[in-house]
TrEMBL record:
Cytochrome c domain location: 45-148
Record key words, sorted: Heme, Iron, Metal-binding, Signal
Top-level taxonomy: Bacteria, Pseudomonadati, Pseudomonadota, Gammaproteobacteria, Lysobacterales
The keyword Iron is annotated on this UniProt entry: yes
InterPro entries named among the record's database cross-references: Cyt_c-like_dom (IPR009056), Cyt_c-like_dom_sf (IPR036909)
Protein name as catalogued: C-type cytochrome
Signal peptide: 1-22
A Pfam family the protein falls into: Cytochrom_C
Domain of life, per lineage: Bacteria
């Protein structure tokens, strides 16, 4: 079982490496792993890679309501529409943004600048996004754009002196908390 899992992950990685080397011939191959949404949006190689990255690097865990609880079994039509689950800590309470709305008015060049320099409050792993290659960040952008705008904005950030309504995770941290950014 583990062996199978590793093989199929290795196959996906090889596939995405192949896309990188030969973008002109890649169109036929990734269609096999792209969802109908991704295929419909054109540039299937980049859109499918964006879907793969969003699926595997954890964006949905926070930015899609109920995703982790449903073991990832959520229709892509609902992906990345933000979440009402608060993350409460010394920084206040943050909510994973509705990325479909956030990117609605952003063009690709703006996204590439913005995502390369993004600094947020916790729990967003902004360092991970900044560390991604421009091609991976472009792929994520193309995929999110292929989904189109949808859903409602996530709740607004609350400062530390405000108690959030349920649901929220309360993070009890050691004396030196995650650095405020
Ligand atoms: C552990 C939870 C978590 C994960 C995983 C996560 N995010 Fe976030 N994200 C957040 C939270 C919470 C915020 C809001 C931070 C704030 O209020 O300062 C946020 C904010 C953002 C923002 C800034 C939005 C704005 O309003 O300008 C972007 C862009 C973003 N996330 C993209 C991503 C992408 C892409 C991934 C996957 C690679 C990802 N996030 C993974 C929790 C997460």
């Amino acid at each position: 079982m583990n062996h199978l899992l590793v093989s199929s992950l290795a196959a996906s990685l090889l596939l995405s490496a192949a896309c990188q080397r030969a973008p002109d011939t890649a169109a036929a191959a990734p269609a096999a792993v792209a969802s109908p949404t991704a295929r419909a949006a054109g540039a299937p190689d980049l859109v499918a890679r964006g879907e793969y990255l969003v699926r595997t690097t954890g964006c949905n865990d926070c930015h899609t309501a109920g995703y982790a609880q449903a073991q990832g079994n959520i229709d892509p039509a609902q992906w990345l529409t933000g979440s009402p689950m608060g993350f409460k800590g010394p920084w206040g309470t943050t909510y994973a943004t509705n990325l479909r709305l956030r990117l609605a008015d952003m063009d690709e060049a703006q996204w590439l600048d913005y995502s390369a320099t993004l600094r947020t409050r916790p729990l967003m792993p902004d360092f991970a996004l900044r560390a991604m290659s421009p091609d991976d960040r472009r792929a994520i952008y193309r995929f999110i754009k292929s989904l189109g705008p949808g859903g409602e904005p996530a709740p607004a950030y609350l400062p530390p002196d405000r108690k959030p309504p349920a649901p929220y995770y309360e993070l009890v941290l050691p004396a030196a908390p995650i650095a405020q950014r």
